[in-house]
């Protein structure tokens, strides 16, 4: 083009830098809108999952908030629609402007060429030069236009890439150390030791300082964000012992149970199993050593068989049935038309609370852990369900180190050792009888529950509390 006419070339490509700058500006604008649209999509997805879940639907019905949930969804959906429309219009306006320019620019070329044709310039051009130049110009504008469009679209796509790679680049808070060792359940007796353990969920080096843990959340509610969830806690649980942890809500009991399987790492101090620091144990093998039963055990929206196989993926049908029988849930499973292939629904809503707990216990039985952690495993159940779950827990606890978190002291009377936690500190430890004799915090908590009008009557089975719970006098029948 320069060979044909440098004057026409300047006019033809002189505005190209302006369009390259505009493409970067429009691309950055679309990128910002796309990033906001991604956040809006995530929020809309969260709202959908919340409101359409079984728990969400029940909550909305119970409080009569169906219309407000619909309005919330419509508001977020409209916000997302507006963002998508803005993103498209921002690009389309630029593309339209570019097309208009590419369509009109030949007019300027013809005007200048006509002037040069009649000899109005230093270098007059011929009619053949004009035809050749405009042909080259059209061939030049098309790829330039496509490149500018790709540039704008790429800028918008980078917002999605940033979000994806942002997740991919997140380093795990808890990971294996380079010299981590593997321990099989057969190698482990099951002793657990805490040495001067301190945990602060808001500490910069804490693995989950942004998420805030169970007791850390209680501290935040009280405006005590810097409070230690655990402060200098030391104890040792011998292999095969039933160790119970009691104390007020937010005292630090659940934090202790989280530290053993390394759901969190201690800010200071160490936790060891059979003398081996848990940070030196391969995470996969550590998970194989520990079984965890919570107050509300999680079940997948899958069949009973698939939920049980989560405990041992290689278990046979006979293994599944043996575990289910040990957990007193087999008879209930076979009552379903599809038996072990019955889909339990979201979070196991097709089962009662006690049935979900027994199914979770069967899953842990298949897991065959050396250390069992029970975090208020029966506190949310009625008396009948609690008895079934307690019966299921008996064979599971036998021969294993058991860590029991309890609010109801009646469930841990026969524990080998009871640790009393308050405000992150270990206040007392001993047997039930020893702690009562000391007249400390444990005795105070015990008096509140047993002498505070909560005893309903006495029967041959034990002490019946006002909530229907039975306190078993026989240590063989008393467990969490």
Automatic annotation (TrEMBL):
* Subcellular locations according to the entry: Cell membrane
Keywords for this entry?
A: ATP-binding, Cell membrane, Membrane, Nucleotide-binding, Transmembrane, Transmembrane helix, Transport
Q: Name one GO biological process term.
A: oligopeptide export from mitochondrion
Report how it sits in the membrane. Answer: Multi-pass membrane protein
**Membrane-traversing stretches:** 6-23, 94-118
Q: Which GO terms describe its molecular function?
A: ABC-type oligopeptide transporter activity; ATP binding; ATP hydrolysis activity
Q: Which Gene3D superfamilies does the UniProt record give?
A: ABC transporter type 1, transmembrane domain (1.20.1560.10), P-loop containing nucleotide triphosphate hydrolases (3.40.50.300)
Q: Which GO cellular component terms are attached?
A: mitochondrial inner membrane; plasma membrane
The ABC transmembrane type-1 domain, residue ranges? 1-156
Domain ABC transporter intervals: 192-448
Q: Does the keyword Transmembrane helix apply?
A: yes
Q: What is this protein called?
A: ATP-dependent lipid A-core flippase
Q: Which organism is it from?
A: Geodia barretti
